[in-house]
Amino acid sequence: MKRVFFKHRKLVSEKRSLLDCAFIAIVFCGVSPFLWATELPEYFRSSRSMGMGGTSTAFVEGTDSLFLNPAGLATTESAIFKFAQSDTSLSDDILFDIRQNVSTYASLGISGVGKLMGKNIATQEQIVTAWAMPGLAVGLLVDAQIALRMKDKVYPKLELGYQTTQGVQVGTGVSLMRGRHGRSDLRAGASVKVMFRRGGFKNLPLIDLFNINVTRLQAMAGNFGLGIGVDTGLQYEKKLDSVTSILTGIAMTNIGDTTFASPQADAMRSNLSFGLAYKWKPRLAEYIFAYDYRNVGAVSDWRKKNHFGLQMKWPILSLYGGVNQIYFSYGIGIDVWVMNIMAYSYAEELGTFVRQNIERRWVLQMTFQL
Q1: Whole-angstrom Cα distance, residue 313 to residue 290?
Q2: Virtual CA dihedral for 220, 226, 227, 228, nearest 10 degrees?
Q3: Phi, psi of 26 (to 5 degrees)
Q4: Which of 94, 106, 230, 349 is most deeply packed, by most CB within 10 A?
Q5: Going by DSSP bridges, is the β-strand pair 184-204/158-178 parallel, antiparallel, or unpaired?
Q6: Residue-level pLDDT at 264
Q7: Could you give the CA distance from residue 122 to residue 243 in angstroms, rounded to a whole number?
Q8: How far apart are CA 78 and CA 346, in angstroms?
Q9: d(CA 55, CA 308)
Q10: Given pLDDT bands bounded at 50, 70 and 90, which one contains residue 22?
Q11: Up-side HSE of residue 332: CA atoms within 13 Å toward CB?
Q12: What are phi and psi of 5, to 5 degrees?
């Protein structure tokens, strides 16, 4: 009887082991795209928007509208010329440990790889020149990104990013329906972009870290490929009184994805967003509270799609705050004559679920505008 019992127990144990193995295989083979997911796509990151937790759809205006929601171009009442807008972004791990990182990159060995484990090293430079007049805007954009991400210590992997994007975007915005006495306004807009991109973000075997050099990066990035994309959007503003408004908006950027002729270039993914905002604009000030639900069609944790933002703006000083996904964002801006300087920080979730792979970024923006 004992032999039968132990034989049965051994058989059950073997079956459980097989089930465990099958479960592990399903997780790593069948669901790996979710485990290795990266951040939700944003083709253009406005400093004002990111300081306000990533919100923009309902209230964006001026030259930023060209890239975020072209319906906002309908609010342009006079010519705007942005000579140059420069955004320099650094991740937490490169900004606060730069001395150790420089020495590590200079001599990558086993110990150097160990120091990089658990870190996300990333930097981005974006330069924009734009011109807008009532109903029309043109913008030139150059964006360069480099990243070396090895944050996951449990399942070590190497994500290498080396991407350059440049091109021109043209858009228009019009008022479709103005209410009596201007108390309501329905705006629509559309824009077309002609972009050239090389490179992207790739998951590589960890051993490839020892073979990274400029020649290898250029080979991975390939040549520039042409891509043509279309954005469109709507905004509706209802004025409650002379200084208070409620705004709603919807925007679809990169309709149907913007793909490039180069096979190595990552596509610009389609992004559907909805927004709601409350604006109070007393004399010499502007206060905005906003909410966005972005990347509606993306397969990801719904909490990564939520954005809340607050703006408090005065003649020279502006303060920004919000929640990007579930992480705090904040910023401060100083506006003097033709120059605007803004410093802000936000965190982005790079994993499929929140708190899985957090990367905080620190950004300095300088703008010269008439």
Answers
A1: 14
A2: 170
A3: -65, -45
A4: 349
A5: antiparallel
A6: 93
A7: 42
A8: 32
A9: 6
A10: very low
A11: 1
A12: -65, -50
Please list the alpha-helical segments (H only) found in the chain. 2-25, 32-35, 47-51, 65-68, 92-95, 98-106, 110-116, 214-221
Nearest to 170 by CA among 192, 146, 189, 197: 192
* SS3 call for 24: helix
Place of tokens 């401060």: 332
Longest dimension (CA), the chain: 94
Which one, of 251, 237, 210, lies nearest residue 54 by Cα? 251
Reported as a pLDDT band with limits 50, 70 and 90, residue 359 is very high
- Per DSSP, 314 falls in state -
CB-based contact 197:262 (threshold 8 Å): yes
pLDDT at 42: 87
pLDDT, one tens digit per residue, over 198-255 is 999 988 776 666 677 777 777 888 999 999 999 999 999 999 999 999 999 999 999 9
The single-letter code of the amino acid at 170 is V
In which element (H, E) is residue 143 found? Answer: strand 136-149
Amino acid letter for position 74: A
Cβ burial of 335 (10 Å; 0-12, 13-18, 19+) is middle
Two tokens, residue 10: 């051994």
Residue carrying the six token digits 């650094």: 90
Residue 68 class from Cβ within 10 Å (0-12 exposed, 13-18 middle, 19+ buried)? buried
How far is residue 156's CA from residue 206's CA, in Å, rounded to a whole number? 7
What is residue 184's three-state secondary structure?
strand
What CA–CA distances, in Å, run from 47 to 56, 88, 117, 316, 363? 11, 11, 30, 16, 8
Class for the domain spanning 41-369: mainly beta
Helix, strand or coil for residue 367?
strand
What is the Cα–Cα distance from 318 to 236, expressed in whole angstroms?
25
Coil, strand or helix: which one is 354? coil
What are the tens digits of pLDDT across the range 257-309? 999 999 999 999 999 999 999 999 999 999 999 999 999 999 889 999 999 99
